[in-house]
Design a protein that fits this description.
single chain; alpha/beta; Rossmann fold; six-stranded parallel β-sheet; four-stranded parallel β-sheet; 13 helices
Length: 343
Amino acid sequence: MKDKKDVTIYDIADKLKLSTSTISRALKDHHSISEKTIKKVKKTAEEMGYRPNTLAASLRSNKTKTIGVLISRINRPFISSLISGIEIAAQKGGYNVIITQSHDSYQDEVNNAKTLYNSRVSGVICSLAMETIDTSHFQQFIDKNIPLVFVDRVPKDFDTYRVMIDNYSAGYKATKHLIEQGCKRIAHFAGSQFRNIYSERKRGYIDALKHYNLPIDENLIVYFTTMSFHEGEKATNNLLDMQNPPDGIFSSNDTTAVSAIQYAKKRGVKIPQELAVIGFNNDPISQIIDPGLSTITHPAVKMGQTAAEKILSHLKDPSNKDEITEITFLNTEVLVRESSKRI
């Protein structure tokens, strides 16, 4: 069985006895075509099953009206909320979104960046993979004046748009909260220090301890590879096995904080009386766990919207070079629940 031939503007023109240029302009609501003709052309196009060839149009104009999104793992609540924010702003601006995952692999990120580049995307939004140190694969977008926005996990040495939170302040506030609840030995679940978000959260944690004259014990700082549930269990087990275990944990994400609560409870440790825990992100799981997890709010949807708006703003006025290294900081708050509330 042969595939049915696609309907073209030539077929519509032949049926309506109009020129192809008239059909083309009518489909684009051009001001030179009467409203009556536009309605007739669109009605006929729909009846005939016409589909605009966006690929051909993009090749002619070198623009696709598409924003490429390069993220780590789509199954993380923060990332899915980030994507939602991107799509809200992109669709409002008349753009589509292509999503690729790096699975926190540097090589996958390199390959995905090349795919987006070859797909002629109009702009790119990226949250870096955990493994990524070298960011030279993003230079291809800069060289072609394709606007690039890094969001959340941003490089330290790549001058372009960045949308992020003040991770240092957030780390300080989380640690301060535990101290104010009476914690004296606070452990920290730290992500890869190549990622600015985790190095800054750790810096905030250390400075809060210093400010309140509490000792900094390197044995209480645990470095994670993927910030997974399994890693959280293993770290909690090792900490509780210490001769002088911690009485508080500040985790750089909610996943490992939840695993710490669950594992500590299995070992008979009372939460928060014996071990107070605070996470980061305010993922849905933080409200399901018993006791409810204290956490740092992370405005994922707003970050996604802001990143997409930066792309759209640049596409509207590419001549505005002053914003090329702009950093947008969004606020965070300590959300106190039962896992850390002693007072």
